[in-house]
Structure formats: C-alpha cells, structure tokens
Amino acid sequence: MLNAAGLAFVVAGSRWQQADAQVMFVFILAMAAAEVAVGLALVVQIYHRFKSLDVDAISEMRG
Amino acid sequence: MEATFYIAGGIAVISTALMLTRLNLVHALLYLIVSLLAVSVVFFTLGAPFVAALEAIVYAGAIMVLFLFVVMMLNLGRHAAETERQWLTPGIWTGPVILAGILIVEVVYLARGASAGLGTGATGPKAVGIALFGPYMIGVELASMLLLAGLVGAYHLGLRKTEKPEIQHDTATDEGRAAIGGELVLAGTDRSARTT
C-alpha cells in the first residue's frame, strides 16, 4: 500500500516535472522501513510468547 | 519507451496477483520482490531514476530481506526439515525467474541509451538532493527521528527477557477481583488505608 502511494506521488511528480514527489517517496520509504522493523519485532515477540501466529489462537480479550 | 512502461506495469500487477494467491509464504515474498522491482522499472520510465534505484536498494533489498529473515527465522508453521526440503526445490524459482527475466531485458534496453522519462525529461538525483537540503530539511530531520524511534522500538521489542517471576495483578484472577471488591485504586495496598 505504501509502495502504491509512493508510485502515485512519483507519477504526479513526473507529470509536473518537480522533484518534490521523489522527496515524498524518500520519506515514505523511511517510514516504511521503520514500520517494518517495529512490526516484525512485534511478530517475533508474539511468536515467542504464544508459539503460533494464528490470530484467533492469540486472542485473549473477553467478549 | 512506452512499451517498457506497460510491460513493467503488467509484470507488477501479475506478480502482485500471484503473490496474493500463493499458499507458501516464501513464494509470496519472492513474488512481492519481483513486484517491487517492476515498480522500480516503472519509476525509471517515468523519469525518476533516483527513486528507481532507491526502490530497488531499500525496498526490495532491505525491507523485503527483513521479511525473509523473520520468515526463515521463525520457521512459520511447519517442521524445520520438511520446510527446508520444500523450499529448496528448483520448481519454486520458475515463476519469479521468468518475470525477473523480462525485467532484466527491459533494464538492459533502457540502459543502452533510451532516455529516462517518456520524452518529458528526467528529474535526477541532483534536483532531489537540492530539494531535500532546501525546502524539505525539516522533513529530513523528522525522518531521522522517526528512524531513531523505530530503531529503539525494534530493539526493545526484540529483547528476549530472562525468566522472572510474573507479578500477578489483583484483577487477573476471579479471587483477586472478589477480594478487591471494585476498589481498583487501592488494590494491592493495605485496605486499612481507606479513609471512607
């Protein structure tokens, strides 16, 4: 999804011949990298704690 | 020149559709890598060679490699030996190789002299660099702070804690909740401290 948004930005920047779109894509890329790092750390924690990645198996909320 | 755009776009769509329908997780990740490389070629045809290189290096080369690390490390869902035997068959490579081969042909054709940017000119790295150091400097600083936060967060979340006795909160068990009687603020303290 982030890649698709970045693609839309770059296409718009190519249309109007401005470098701002590529700057936005660089920021999107940095954000995606940070998000992936944190998200994968969470996934690893869930796996070590619950021994499975099935979302239904790790549901502990009542109701 | 426009043909390369359409071919690369088609490859991106096809490989993404294939990725969504794969049962094996590693197959899906390989198709996602092909999709990202196809989008990189699309960026090149649009006249953005800097983000084309960035997409290939950072997105397909670092972020997807992170995904593959985690998948391979956790050995998701199956026994290790059986998984290895299934992963190392030559058959899993045919799909991504065919799609990536088309992309390679395109990149060679583009590198041999076709001008980047569908005839409208390219905004190269120099313009991006000037924009980053000029009007968007605050964004660069914010992005660096975000990356620092991501680094610290990922480090903290990835820590394997040693075995410590878990502190049971009073609301965790039914007996505890009955003993509190709804006094969540004073839970765990000396009950005689209540003044009412």
Which two chains touch over the largest interface?
A: A-B, 36 and 47 residues
As a percent range, the share of helical residues of chain A equals: over 70%
Intertermini distance of chain B = 82 Å
Task: Give helix and strand order of chain A, one letter per element, not per position.
Answer: HH
Number of helices of chain A: 2
Strand content of chain A: under 5%
Separation, N- and C-terminal Cα atoms of chain A: 31 Å
- Give the number of helices of chain B: 8
Strand-pairing-aware structural class of chain A? mainly alpha
Number of strands of chain A: 0
**Biggest β-sheet of chain A, characterized?**
none
Task: Describe, in short, the structure shown.
With 63 residues, chain A is mostly helical. Chain A is 73% helix and 0% strand.
Folded structure, characterized:
The complex is a heterodimer of chains A (63) and B (196). Chain A has helices spanning 2-16, 20-50. Chain A has 63 residues and is mainly alpha-helical. In chain A, α1 (2-16) runs antiparallel to α2. Chain A starts with a helix and ends in a 13-residue tail after the last helix. Chain B has 196 residues and is an all-alpha fold. Helices cover 66% and strands 0% of the residues of chain B. Chain B starts with a helix and ends in a 16-residue tail after the last helix. The A-B interface holds A 3, 6-7, 10-11, 13-14, 17-23, 25-27, 29-38, 40-45, 47-48, 53 and B 36, 39, 42-43, 46-48, 50-51, 54-55, 58-59, 62-63, 66-67, 69-70, 73-74, 76-77, 117-118, 120-121, 123, 127-128, 130-132, 136, 139, 143, 146-147, 149-151, 153-155, 157-158, 160.
